[in-house]
Amino acid sequence: MSANTTIQIREEGGTLVACVGGYLNSQLGEEVEKVVRGKLDDGVRRILINFQGTRLVNSIGISFVIGIVEKVMERDGRMAFCSLSRINCELFRVTGLEKYVRSFETEKEALDYLAGEQ
Amino acid sequence: MRLFGTMGAETSFREEDFFGREEELSALTRSALDGGRGIGSSFMLYGPPNIGKTSLLLKLARVLRNSTGVEVLPRPFPLYFSFSQILTHPLALSQHFLQEFLWQLLRFLGDEQPSAFDPAAMCDRLASLGVTGCREVLSAHERCSAEGDGLSALVNALSFPFSAAGERIYPVFLFDDFQYTAKLQAVPEGAMLSILRPYIKAGHFPMFLSGSSPGRVTAALKREGLFGTFQMVEVGGLSTADSVRLWGHLCERRRVEIPASLLPRASGRLGGIPTYQRMLVEEIFFRGAKVPDAVTLENLYAFSVTEGRLNRYWREFFENTFPDRVRRGRAIRFLKRILCDRFPLDTMEGATSLMGASEEEGEAILAALEFKGLLKTDLEQLTFPGDPVLADFLYWAFERGVLGKGTSQVAAAIVQTRLSSAAPEPGKNDDHIRRVATVKELMRKWDLREVPLLLLDFGMFREKFGGKGLLEVVIGMEREAARVRLPKVSSVSTGYRASRGGPRFDFDLVAYGFLDNDFSEENLVIWAVDAAVEKNLGARSVEHFENRCRLLALEKGLPNDRLRKWMIINETSDPAAVDLASRYGIHLSHPTQLRLFLNLFGLEELEREPEPARSSAPEAPRDTKTLEYELVLPIKADSEVVAVRVAEEVAAFSSVDADTLDRIKMAIIEACINAFEHSASESGKVRLRYLISPDKIELFVQDDGKGFRKENTPEESKKNRGWGLKLIRELVDDVEVITGPDGTVVHMMMHLGGDPANPEAVRQGEGGSASPREQ
User: What does DSSP say about strands B563-568 and B524-531: parallel, antiparallel, or unpaired?
Assistant: First the structure.
């Protein structure tokens, strides 16, 4: 994995916040999937992925995000994205992701959304 | 039969590649053969690195070996020895020299190379072949070595060949890379010449010293009182005719075809330097390129000098010469100013000042350059070799390292410069006058946005004002042309301190120098330059600038005409600001003029002042025809990111908005990873081509594998994969996938500046399909 691809996680009010930085390729996608799967196993049901630091994305990276969405849905969890750049928004639209996961401009909005409608 | 065999230079010397230099060769051969009659002349061969000095010595050795029959005695025994080996300890050097001498002589006399180095046995063998006297010298040498007396051992080793001279043979010394003798540990510089002095003075043995540091060596020769004994031979590039013959030979060997009509120009392009010719032909061969015309040749040359072999050669050269990065950068910037911008400089102080380095560091850089032959000093007078390839390399290093431009941008600039300056032929004088007039005319016009390249060609100015030590350039409005005299030696900074410990006045750029080359306080001139950041220059900025200027003039006690005030404006300015500026005597100018300034003053500070310089970069060919860039990527995880970076660089040429650039980047990523995954390429490489024209960007991603997978395989669908082509279709305006026996090309196109087909509307109409639930 190149040095500028990172994932940082924290929990905020029962929501897992995963900040994805750098190039969302297969390695980083796999890493994110692993982290989220682990947290789902631990019982976390609300997942927020923050794409603020994501500079580049490829289709393999997106396929891992889809895999994550599937897993969260299987476990009846809830999920949101935030801080997507315009191009990433469009990629998520083209791949159909936007139909299943809502995107927000800021992390706060996303957290409120996830915490609100329990 | 090989004459030599133990050292690097001879083994790589290919006699069949040696062309030209007949005149030098015959003169040297004649002198060497005079040694047979006991007349030994001494020569000093000098020239820039890699010009062919070693080849000339080795060719001379071959010629001498074949010059006389075995029956004519004594025969000349060419003893080639290069001091460039990393043997800085005198004992090691003496041992090495002894070994070389004995081996070379035995082989010269017809023996096979002995399997082990046994000096005593070799001396005996030589005695049996009629060369006597070696044994005695050897025992003395062994004694010195045992005592650890390096200098004596060296003296002893060097006396071997002389003691071997006799009725059968006489030695002809071919001492290469002689400047390295100054680096011997614990041996004073020039000691080698002291050792050789009696033999040189005796004048019985022909001696050819060669090196790229003639200043140092000649100084040592003078110290030893030997200077008059030596004839100096400068080795330069080949004549055009010889160089063309060499092209023919090299092209034939590699089966590279270059039209004969292009060869003379190609020779001039490389300064007639054989090494460069070899490198370029190899480059063309390995790239499998066809060279149908001059433009292709220029492109290949530009490729080579910006990222290919010629580039590698000089990069390694500078890395070896200056292991320290900062110092290397300084040296490159310095040389760039001299060789590319033709900064008129010929003194040590001037050089140190131009480098912006301390005296000590300046001297160290100059010494290293001199050692490597990139500088010749004679009585403090500095001269630099006019190597066109080096100049282009320095241009690349500077533009890339300091201005941060992409390699392809620089390559394009090099090609353009060459093509545009290729025209002038005989009868250049009129052309010269015309160009000077044009430059002046252009410079008078303030609204000049694009600096033509010829503006930066100071050679013309130098010719006109050379010798005066001053550059005089007219800069000003049509009716109020202000004559600005630019001093020869000056420095640039971003601030000026009027006195030691006093307050510092900050500007975007401060240049200072002395009028009439007189370094006195009365002749100090300061140029204060500010670059206005706002699009429309307002009166407040002018006022603010003037206030700082006033304070500086007051503090320094500068007369009115000694503080030149310049403001660089971005686009437009308020009429009030223009009025105010003219009242204060502030010159308003566009960034292009700043660039000119920086070029004249030296460009050290550009890094701190990137904005005006970048925006003024003249290369942006927005209104010109298509530019083409190529990139070869190894099939390797994440190497598509490199292609994205290049796209960013290339897009800088064109008026591409951020959104479009993002789409292009994503499309490139998808095309690349598809090529990586599906092509099963044999070469392990994917080629990219970027074509930029004013109205569109075209991208070609080509692999040599099985073909692009258009449909998802069941396995991919399972893994939510296989959207490459679909995404690309969404991202760019036009996609075409061409699969043939030689692989697949994905051709993508993006229209710029207009929206003929309203692609956005089309995009909105489509939806995604690979959603989790649908699966």
Answer: parallel
Q: Which two tokens stand for residue B439?
A: 């430059």
Q: Does A87 touch chain B (CB under 8 A)?
A: yes
Q: Which of A57, A60, A87 sits opposite B663 (nearest CB)?
A: A87
The CA distance from B129 to B658, in Å, is 81
- C-alpha–C-alpha distance, residues A10 and B426, integer Å: 75
Contact B668, B701 (CB under 8 A): yes
Does the pLDDT value for residue B771 go beyond 50? Answer: no
User: Distance between CA B415 and CA B645 in Å, rounded?
Assistant: 22
Task: Return the H-helix or E-strand segment holding A73.
Answer: helix A59-74
Contact B638 A98 (CB under 8 A): no
Q: What pLDDT, on a 0 to 100 scale, did the predictor assign at position B748?
A: 92
Task: Give the tens place of pLDDT for each residue, B32-83.
Answer: 888 777 787 888 888 888 888 888 999 998 888 887 665 667 888 888 888 8
Asked if residue A24 lies in contact with residue A58, where contact means CB atoms within 8 angstroms, the answer is yes
**3-state SS record for B401-464:** HCCCCCHHHHHHHHHHHHHHCCCCCCCHHHHHHHHHHHHHHHHHCCCCCCCCHHHHCCHHHHHH
Mean pLDDT lowest for which of A56-60, B446-450, B529-533, B698-702? B446-450
Of A2, A64, A95, the CB nearest to B638: A2
Q: Which of B750, B730, B752 is CA-nearest to residue B670?
A: B730
In this complex, the residue of A25, A64, A91 whose CB is nearest that of residue B666 is: A91
Q: How many residues does chain A have?
A: 118
Check B770 against A66: CB less than 8 A apart: yes
Q: Which of the 8 DSSP states describes residue B186? A: T
**Alpha-carbon span B424 to B429, nearest angstrom:** 10
Measured between CB atoms, does B600 come within 8 Å of chain A? no
Whether B772 has its CB under 8 Å from any CB of chain A: the answer is: yes
**Predicted pLDDT of residue B276:** 92
Q: Which chain A residue shows the shortest CA-CA distance from B760?
A: A90
H or E segment and range at residue B108: helix B90-108
Does residue B638 sit at the A interface (CB-CB below 8 Å)? yes
- Residue of chain A nearest B724, judged by CA positions: A59
Structure tokens at B160: 């071997």
**Residue B661 — φ and ψ, nearest 5°?**
-60, -40
Nearest CB partner across the interface for B767, out of A2, A96, A100: A96
B659 Cβ under 8 Å from any chain A Cβ: yes
Asked if B173 contacts B205 with a C-beta cutoff of 8 angstroms, the reply is: yes
The sign one gets for the Cα dihedral B84, B87, B89, B95 is negative
Measure in Å the smallest separation between the Cα of A91 and chain B Cα atoms. Answer: 7
Say which residue, B665 or B406, is predicted with more confidence. Answer: B665
- Judge whether residue B721 has pLDDT over 70: no
**B727 interfacial to chain A (CB closer than 8 Å):** yes
Q: Looking at mean pLDDT, say which of B129-143, B257-271, B668-682 comes out highest.
A: B257-271
**Angle, CA B644 vertex, CA B643 and CA B648 arms, to 5°:** 115
B640 interface with A at CB cutoff 8 Å: yes
The answer to whether the pTM exceeds 0.90 is no
- Residue B549 to residue B555: CA distance in whole angstroms: 10
Contact A46, A15 (CB under 8 A): yes
Structure confidence at residue B595 (pLDDT): 54
Task: Tell me how far apart the alpha carbons of residues A100 and B771 are, in angstroms, rounded to a whole number.
Answer: 8
Q: How far is CA B438 from CA B433, B452, B559, in A?
A: 9, 10, 33
pLDDT bucket at B498, cuts 50 / 70 / 90: low
The string of pLDDT tens digits covering residues B179-218 is 888 777 777 767 788 888 888 887 778 889 888 766 777 7
Q: Are B770 and A70 within 8 A, CB to CB?
A: no
Pairwise CA distance, residues B744 & A58, whole Å: 20
